[in-house]
Automatic annotation (TrEMBL):
The name this protein goes by in its record: Glutamate carboxypeptidase II
Family: Belongs to the peptidase M28 family. M28B subfamily.
Record keywords, A-Z: Carboxypeptidase, Hydrolase, Protease, Signal
Domain PA per the UniProt entry, residue ranges: 142-208
Molecular-function annotations in GO: carboxypeptidase activity
Length: 694
């Protein structure tokens, strides 16, 4: 939907811009403000912040991470923002505890569990770096035969069953990729495994891809991907579903689950590098794997190791109640302060976190300074802009989820959008995924910013040879989850990406300045784009959602779902109730779009009418919130989108229906059709109500 289009010849980078939600007069003001904002950006700030943030490893729950917290508070306070710190007390580990991986027979060898210190990279020699570990591993000491399970996906374990291979009482070794690591552990434990070892195969990132670090960007033999295993039926602290994990001494601290009732993994799990994994694979003597399971090590991969190969896996990982801290800064809006545009990135890291997450953290600190200077010059946004730095994301998207649970009522009434910027300056390729209502907006902002290494705009570089860029759908894995899937806030995740030493001790400033962006041009580019995006959301008279996109996207998603169901249920006749509701919705979105465009073109909108329409626009996304939630976890309330409960990362659109497709269930398809039709009708009724008020 385009409420109003105006062409202003004020700057080459802002030519032919579409200012959604603006009147003619306010679009002219917005265009000038965007020029003023771009002039406030100081390119050197990003590098300064990134180097400071990544001086030391800073795992959630450690003093080093609190030092990062204090630096962010000071920086944004100096920039003129009102800064609040939100403490929580959650159940987690802040370190690996003790662990051991050992080949017991046919030889005796203790395997490396930490990256090699490199002369070229002084950061890799830091004495506080810890070995590879998986948060929320179970504890135990087991010695057993070995089974290779490829990526450890649901399909891979089903394939093992098909091959007649049992993992019961065995240690599973699986490579990273294909799904969230926690599901590898969940599936292994469910199939009777006594332990799990996870490694990065060189076929996925290693010498088969190109030069390895420190010569190149791929995993060297000692590089280890750390990461959480948390797979509760909700996102956030495992002991306080639906309630914020306020500190134990807080008057409103919630009643907590007992740890044994939280569904945590009980088997020991740990990651290793492919150099260590080679010492297991070379002794495997069992059946040859299916062809697509073959990795990049110089051996024929085997499904089972045989009786002669025994491996010992020991993990003792204590967990305890741990303080974490979110930092949320506000630049108060001058006209509509109770409407919030929220940008966020977590700040905790598995080690130094130069790309993940602190490239996003550094960019947001620079943005807070640029917007602060703009406000100091008298150009404050109309709506409030909030910049949030989340803690304990790496342990299971905890900090942001606790804040959303704490603030859910206010967020449902006030949050215009959430923009997630996790590791947002990790390379030179811009990408974004978004709720339907924000896709046009992010594309428009990308047209207003120059890409630094070509003569193109970011939009043109992003699109490449295509007429327009691909904007994905949001899945799991980061801090947008609670906003979008629990509270119904339209959300977007974006940034520049590239090859990465993901979750290794090598993701440091040396790696960044040598391989990610040596010229340090991408940080200012992303800052400019996100600044323009947030200012357009903050200043438009009417919240600039693309409401027509709801109907067009829903129509495509239901067509796709119907074809998927027919692939295993040939008698299926379609989601008739939802299709009828979408037909009505299409008419309503078109009518409302035209009416809003006409209203804005008059330039005559009263404050009362503006407030009424904006409140109605804020309510649209909430139509998809269903109190019953999803069959795999009722914390996930959105009928529109969810993370994939079998992989953790993938985007599930129409998740209630997608769950039926994944499990090839047919008995509840009519029920889900009715639930979706009800939600779509609720959205349609809200739009018709808007039309009446226009």
């Amino acid at each position: 939907m385009r409420y109003f289009i105006i062409v202003l010849l004020v700057s080459a980078s802002l030519n032919a811009q579409t200012y959604t939600g603006f009147t003619t007069a306010s679009a002219e003001t917005q265009a000038q403000q965007e020029i003023d904002f771009l002039n406030q950006v100081k390119p050197a700030d990003f590098k300064t912040h990134l180097k400071t943030l990544t001086q030391e490893p800073h795992i959630a729950g450690t003093p080093a991470n609190e030092k990062v917290r204090d630096y962010m508070v000071t920086t944004m306070d100096k920039a003129g923002w009102s800064v609040d710190t939100y403490p929580y007390e959650v159940y987690m580990s802040s370190g690996p505890g003790t662990s051991l991986v050992e080949v017991v027979s046919p030889v005796s060898k203790i395997l490396d569990q930490k990256e090699e210190a490199l002369a070229e990279d002084p950061y890799s020699q830091n004495a506080t770096l810890v070995k590879g570990w998986n948060a929320y591993s179970g504890s135990g000491d087991v010695t057993a035969e070995v089974i290779y399970a490829n990526y450890g996906t649901k399909a891979d374990f089903e394939k093992l069953e098909e091959l007649g291979v049992s993992v019961k009482d065995k240690i599973v070794i699986a490579r990273y990729g294909g799904n969230f690591r926690g599901y590898k552990a969940k599936f292994a434990e469910a199939h009777g495994a006594v332990g799990l070892i996870i490694y990065t195969d060189p076929k996925d990132s290693g010498f088969t891809k190109g030069l390895t670090f420190p010569e190149g960007v791929y995993y060297n033999p000692s590089a280890i991907q750390r990461g959480s295993l948390l797979t509760a039926d909700w996102t956030g602290d495992p002991l306080t579903p639906y309630q914020p994990a306020l500190p134990l001494d807080h008057k409103d601290t919630p009643e907590r689950l007992a740890p044994e009732d939280a569904g945590l993994h009980t088997i020991p799990v740990t990651p290793i590098g492919y150099g260590a994994a080679e010492s297991i694979f070379k002794y495997m003597k069992g059946e040859v794997v299916p062809q697509d399971w073959q990795g990049g090590l110089p051996y024929t991969y085997r499904v089972n190791g045989g009786k002669d190969l025994k491996v010992r896996l020991k993990v003792d990982q204590p967990k305890k109640m741990t303080k974490i801290y979110n930092v949320v800064a506000t630049l108060k809006g001058k006209e509509q302060p109770d409407e919030w545009v929220i940008l966020g990135c977590h700040y905790d890291a598995w080690a130094f976190g130069a790309t993940d997450p602190n490239s996003g953290t550094a960019m947001l600190l620079s943005l807070s300074e640029s917007l602060g200077r703009l406000a100091e010059a008298g150009d404050r946004p109309n709506r409030s802009i909030m910049i949030a730095h989340w803690d304990a994301e790496e342990h299971g998207v905890i900090g942001s989820s606790e804040w959303v649970e704490q603030m859910k009522d206010e967020l449902k009434a006030k949050a215009v959008a959430y923009i997630n910027l996790d590791g947002a300056v990790s390379g030179k390729t811009f990408r974004a995924s978004s709720a339907p209502s924000l896709k046009t907006l992010i594309a428009g902002a990308a047209k207003a910013v120059d890409y630094p290494y070509t003569e193109e705009s970011v939009y043109e570089h992003w699109a490449g040879e295509k007429p327009e860029p691909n904007i994905g759908n949001l899945g799991g894995g980061s801090d947008h989850i609670a906003f979008y899937m629990f509270a119904g806030v339209p959300s977007l995740s974006g940034g520049a990406s590239g090859p990465t030493l993901y979750h290794t001790n090598y993701d440091d400033f040396y790696y960044y300045e040598n391989f990610v962006d040596p010229e340090f041009q991408m940080g200012p580019m992303v800052e400019k784009l996100m600044g323009i995006l947030s200012l357009r959301l903050a200043n438009a008279e009417l919240i600039p959602y693309d409401i027509e996109r709801y109907a067009t996207d829903l129509e495509l998603h239901f067509e796709n779902a119907t074809q998927q169901v027919k692939s295993f249920y040939s008698d299926f006749t379609g989601f008739t109730a939802s299709s009828q509701a979408i037909s009505s919705l299409k008419l309503s979105t078109t009518s409302v779009a035209k009416a809003l465009e006409k209203l804005l073109s008059t330039g005559n909108i009263s404050k009362r009418q503006k407030n009424q329409l904006n409140a109605q626009l804020l309510a649209l996304e909430k139509s998809f919130l269903d109190p019953k939630g999803m069959p795999y976890g009722d914390w996930y309330k959105s009928l529109y989108a969810s993370s994939d409960p079998f992989s953790g990362y993938a985007s599930w659109i129409l998740p209630g229906i997608q769950y039926q497709i994944e499990t090839e269930a047919t008995q509840d398809l009519k029920m889900w059709d009715d639930r979706y039709a009800k939600a779509i009708k609720e959205l349609d009724d809200k739009l018709k109500g808007m039309l009446e008020s226009l």
